[in-house]
Amino acid sequence: MQTIFVHVKCELGRAYEVADEAALGVEQISEVYSVSGQYDLLMKCYLDDGTDIGHFVTESVQRLPGVKDTFTTICFKAFG
Fold first, then answer.
1. CB 6 within 8 A of CB 71
2. Percentages (nearest 5) of helix, strand, coil residues in the chain
3. pLDDT average, residue stretch 38-62
4. What is the mean pLDDT of the chain?
5. Domain ranges, ordered by start, for the chain
6. Is the entire prediction scored with pTM above 0.85?
7. Percent of the chain at pLDDT above 70?
8. Strand locations in 1-80, DSSP E?
9. H/E element holding 36?
10. For residue 1, with 0-12 CB atoms within 10 Å meaning exposed, 13-18 middle and 19 or more buried, which class applies?
């Protein structure tokens, strides 16, 4: 299992819509948080080993209505 975090910048006024659609419509997204700073949302995703991360992000996250930009962090090891 691979864990990634996707930071999402939304079109103005659409963060809640994007969060709802992501949480309900994309199985691999386990948690969605609203955050402060450069991005509006932070999505925690669990992908099966061997899943193409770039393909998942471009096809499943960037195509959500209201998504303007993304930044992906790939995780290596969880502590604690």
1. yes
2. 25, 40, 40
3. 98
4. 97
5. 2-74
6. yes
7. 100
8. 2-10, 29-34, 41-47, 67-74
9. none
10. exposed
Is 28:47 a contact under the CB 8 Å cutoff? yes
Taking alpha carbons only, the member of 48, 7, 10 closest to residue 28 is 48
Q: Is 61 exposed, middle or buried (0-12, 13-18, 19+ CB in 10 A)?
A: buried
Question: Could you tell me which CATH number the domain at 2-74 has?
Answer: 3.30.70.920
The pLDDT of residue 22 is above 90: yes
pLDDT exceeds 90 at position 80? no
DSSP class of 9: E
Share of the chain above pLDDT 90, in %: 99
